Amino acid sequence: MSIKISPSILSADFAKMGEDVAKLSKWGADWVHCDVMDGVFCPNITFGIPMIKAIRKYTDLPLDVHLMIVKPERYVDKFLDAGADIITFHPEVSESVETIVDTVHRHGKLVGLVLNPNIEVKSIEKYIDMIDLVMLMGVYPGFSAQKFIESTMDKISQLKALIGERNVMIEFDGGVSVDNIQEMAKRGLDIAVSGSYVFGAQDPAKAIRTLKEF
Length: 214
Ligand code: DX5
Ligand code: ZN
Hints:
alpha/beta, TIM Barrel, 8-stranded parallel beta sheet, 8 helices
């Protein structure tokens, strides 16, 4: 089974977002990673519900919406109504993980928890039976093209062991490139997010192929 690639539109051209998103399926992408930042949880402000609604018209690929916002429960319904297919959020800034999981499942969509580099895998053990995926961060949220934090690699193996036979996917976000994807795959990765490696490439379709074939 090959890895799915979810290019992050944070590295796309914001002035030509529709065009860039429309190209993703031709390039061989599987999901579209949308980085929503509120300037409070992390030191950057990107975009929100109107952007999800706008790009929904330009692709049939699943929209993988990464909420880097405090109290995401306030907005989850609205992101789902705008067209999100996968919602991931950070439990340490959420008031009720269970409520968010229920809301997403009631809409028939997928939900996952995101772990920052300093948050331990075992901290989400109590939620593992209710979620569809876990996303590990290889950088601290805020910007694309940051340096990959090597110590996060081992968390893939820890998470794989925690998941065991359950049907829970592993996604990785931040610093993914041809230099580390093979090792990630070996440890059990299912979906890789890639911002700068794909959008910064001369030939993004080739970059996606390279990530899938290592
Ligand atoms: C980090 C974002 C990532 C980021 C990935 O704050 O959540 O999705 O855009 O970009 P690269 O692949 O360039 O590290
Ligand atoms: Zn992200």
